[in-house]
Amino acid sequence: MKKKLLKVILLLVLIQLIFISCAIPVDFEADSKKEGKFKIVNSWGTSRYQDNHDRFFYITYDFLKNLGQRGMYAITLEAESDYEPQAVAVFEMKHPSRSDCSYKIIKGDVSDPEKIKVLPISEGAYFPNSLNYLFKRNQISKGIDMEFPKGLIVVDISELLPLNNQSITLEVTDRNPSYQTGEVTRFWIETYERQYDLKRQDNLTKYKCENLPMKTENNDSIYVTIPNLTIEKNNNYSIYSPPEEPLLKRTKNETKLPLWWDNSESVYFPPVGSQAMKGACTVWSLAYYVAGFNEARKHEWNLSNTTIDTVDKSKVLSPDFVYLLTMDYDFEKQEAKGSNQLMVCKLLTEIGCCTWDKMPYDYRGITSWPDTDAWRDAALHRQKNNFSTLIITPTTDEDIELIKSLLFEGYLISITINGDDVFEKLTDDYLLPDETSNVINYDFNHQVTIVGYEDD
Q1: What are the residues whose beta carbons fall under 8 Å from the beta carbon of 304, sequence distance 6 or more?
Q2: Following DSSP, what letter does each residue of 16-36 receive, concatenated?
Q3: Residue 251 and residue 367: Cα distance in Å, rounded?
Q4: Helix 341-350 to helix 319-326 angle, to the nearest 10 degrees?
Q5: In Å, how far from its chain's centre is CA 153?
Q6: What does the angle CA 397 – CA 401 – CA 407 come to, to the nearest 5 degrees?
Q7: How far apart are CA 49 and CA 44, in angstroms?
Q8: Which residues contact 126 (CB under 8 A, 6 or more apart)?
Q9: Backbone angles phi and psi of 325, in degrees to 5
Q10: How does DSSP classify residue 425?
């Protein structure tokens, strides 16, 4: 009797479990593999696109994962809202070979510095060991071997504040490739109490170095110091103050994404342009599109219904400002190469980028140098110095969803593809086939920008 009763109880429990399991809603979409494609903007203008007048093409989610599995990384940048410099370092260099020298701004005693700001111009910049795996080769951006033109170099150093009876030192290292020397002729610090506005001299305080000029020394460093500075820090300064949560973590939310999103339809999207004869695809992607879109959103610059010829050039960023400070130059072949992605990001965060009107893009030239106005303007358009946390190696569906979330939040994503014969391989729907990314000898040689997505 007891055995029969036990069997009945077990049967009732089993039936109850079946009903419970049937009542549990199952999200099959969450477990299934999502198909779709990303919308890509290029920097080759309109002439190579034939009838594709909107200058875009597409890659599938699987295509991007294939690239990630081969070591490609995607990167974005985050702009600082309502930011203006509070202090800048200003100096003048004279040297017959501007590629010879590298620079640092040092806070405190040179022998025991409190902070060091490496200027990613001419030589390049230091990257943490955690980022070393991203370099495909030992690339140092040197710029072209020409003398400094007349003008000042202006660099935002607001992150070095406050100063409490401390020194600021400009370190110049002459690496001696040309066996020539130069000199620092002028060096001072400017501070701004209310607004970064040179037209109001009552707003500006200068702290000058008097012991100049000072000659550089081959294979050695010189130190140009302004001692005993006391400068308070503006509490509104925040470009080096990270948010409570990193952007990628903030983006991983439970918000249901729409089936499609297209930032190129935004009024803040810069008009498509052409890098032309220069290997400047990296700066077009990261500076012109990614950072430029950030700046347009921040300043509410309406760029709709414009072309690269008709757009207000004070509302788009200059690719040349970044390219001419970061390009890799082959001195033996006497030709300019491209720029390293992380070097470009470092310049955009440490220095910034001026607007196009301050340094117009020269479609062939590689010998220009920013003038004083361009340097000053660049300080207004710095990106947050957190780009090392904004790097994604897209290999999983979760990575794809993260990139879609970033796009939905209003960010553009820079990636690298193989640019050889791209348009010969496009389908009638301007889709780059998946098999294009499956070749064994795939070469990452062209930077492009993801602007949107569309789920199938």
Answers
A1: 267
A2: HHHHHHHHS---HHHHSPP-E
A3: 41
A4: 120
A5: 21
A6: 145
A7: 8
A8: 118
A9: -100, -10
A10: H
Nearest-angstrom CA–CA distance, 422 and 337: 20
Tell me how far apart the alpha carbons of residues 454 and 307 are, in angstroms, rounded to a whole number: 25
Place of tokens 């957190």: 386
Residues 273/287, Cβ–Cβ less than 8 Å: no
Q: What does DSSP assign to residue 418?
A: -
In whole numbers, what is the pLDDT of the chain averaged over residues? 82
Q: Exposed/middle/buried for 377, CB within 10 Å: 0-12, 13-18, 19+?
A: buried
Q: Is the dihedral of CA 319, 322, 326, 331 positive or negative?
A: positive
Tokens describing residue 154: 């202006």
* Listed range (121-135, 209-223, 425-439) with the worst mean pLDDT: 121-135
- Which pair of structure tokens corresponds to residue 181? 């020397």
Q: Residue 3 is encoded by which pair of tokens?
A: 């055995």
Integer Cα distance of 71 and 134 in angstroms:
8
pLDDT attached to residue 389: 76
Centroid of chain to Cα 249: 19
Alpha carbon distance 23, 82 (integer Å): 51
pTM: 0.85
- Per DSSP, the three-state class of 414 is strand
Specify the range with the lowest mean pLDDT, choosing from 115-124, 240-249, 347-356: 240-249
Alpha-carbon gap, residue 225 to 168, rounded angstroms: 6
Q: Find, among 255, 242, 240, 243, the residue nearest to 406 by Cα.
A: 255
Asked if 420 contacts 54 with a C-beta cutoff of 8 angstroms, the reply is no
CA 151 – CA 147 distance, rounded (Å)? 12
Q: What sign has the CA pseudo-torsion 82, 87, 92, 93?
A: negative
- Residue 206, SS3? strand
